[in-house]
Amino acid sequence: MRIKQRGKYDQNFDHLVEKFEKSIYGTVKGEWRLKLLQEDLEELYRKESLNIWDAGCGLGQMALWFAKRGHMLTCCDISYKMLEKAKTLFAKERMEADFYQAPSQELSKTLSQQDLVMFHAVIEWLAEPLKSLEMVSSRVRPGGHLSLLFFNHHSLIYRNTLRGGWRLQTILGKTWYGKGKKLTPPYPQKPEILLQWLKKNGYSIKAHTGIRVFHDYMDKEALQISNEAELMELEYRYCREETFRNMGRYVHILAQKQL
């Protein structure tokens, strides 16, 4: 197991690691995200010994899931604290991976092409989203796959408009970053733009899933009076239908690069 450090740019979450761990990964919402991602990636998971790059690995849950199956993992993150937690998770499970403390854009310049590149909840934090996507996706081999998870622009607009008040002005002025909760990404992405980009760059779409297509639009009172199992059943029923999947808080697209 190796750890290497390089120059940093874009958003670093060293100061928010504990908040991420508690608010995102340690919740029913986080478990639901992992469940749907794993379903979309199940066919690749069952293949023999793929080379996989987790570009912006965070705490390493998805990378570990693949590693336990016998796949070869390369993990990078610009956050030292995130990477240390991912290393600890792997060590606890006696799994191996190559770890780099580096921006995914920089590592893409030297990394060999991969069978699968996972780019999960990263692009919405980057100063140059599409340029970064181009760099990261260049590491997908012909016939390989790109797993792209992103914070949805449409969900941000719709949810904040429903909540009203001061949020309306931030939406009109596109000044939502830094307002309210600190975990709102500055560059939420539009599904149709990324789908267009992928198709233009030689990818075919294999999976398209909305993550939390209802839950995040419900206020506390609505959630309190709702049966969680019934709500999750509705989430599952509609998460891959065209209209609803593009309203998910996050959207996951699995795309295959043409040979």
From TrEMBL:
Source species of the chain: hydrothermal vent metagenome
Molecular function as annotated in GO: S-adenosylmethionine-dependent methyltransferase activity
Biological-process GO terms, alphabetical: methylation
All copies of domain Methyltransferase type, residue ranges: 54-147
Name under which the protein is recorded: S-adenosylmethionine-dependent methyltransferase Functionally Coupled to the MukBEF Chromosome Partitioning Mechanism
PANTHER family: TRANS-ACONITATE 2-METHYLTRANSFERASE-RELATED (PTHR43861)
InterPro entries, A to Z: Cmo5U_methylTrfase (IPR033664), Methyltransf_11 (IPR013216), SAM-dependent_MTases_sf (IPR029063)
UniProt keyword terms in alphabetical order: Methyltransferase, Transferase
